[in-house]
Amino acid sequence: MAEQALTPEQIKILETLLRAGFRFLTLERYARYFAVEKNGFVALLDPAGGELTVFSQAGFLMGDGIGMLIEERGGKSFVFHGQKTPATPELLIAYEDFKRELGDLLIAK
After folding, report:
1. Dihedral sign (CA 20, 68, 89, 103)
2. How far apart, in Å, are the Cα atoms of 15 and each of 2, 73, 87, 90, 97?
């Protein structure tokens, strides 16, 4: 895949994320995307088409991967390659806060 330069608007959004306390991660398996993390939660940002949009869904940082929220008979958990972290009520609130804040910052161009 050929690398493309970021647009000034994309750079501005990334700077806004940094000021809001997000940090950038390098996740080898997701090298095509910008990984942003805050409070243990991660989202992949796709820079295609001059935009920055969330790719797939946000999740919980688990080692070098992203645990996706699933619901089983025993309740909700974040799961990544056999690892499981129970989604406590506090963790679910923090997860929703993360998604809301990220979404707000991405649309507040």
Report:
1. positive
2. 23, 41, 30, 28, 20
Domain with 82 in it: 8-107
Helix H or strand E encompassing 35 = strand 34-38
> Which residues are within 8 A (CB) of 37 and not within 5 positions of it... i.e. 6 or more apart?
22, 23, 24, 25, 61
Mean pLDDT across the stretch 64-76? 93
Q: Is residue 3 one of the residues assigned to a domain?
A: no
Structural domain contains residue 102:
yes
Q: How many domains in the chain? A: 1
In a domain, 78, yes or no: yes
What value does the mean pLDDT take over residues 29-46? 95
Give me the pLDDT at residue 20, please. 98
**Model confidence at 1: pLDDT above 50:** no
Tell me, what DSSP letter sits at residue 63? T
Q: How confident is the model at residue 3 (pLDDT cuts 50, 70, 90)?
A: low
- Residue 1 falls within a domain, yes or no? no
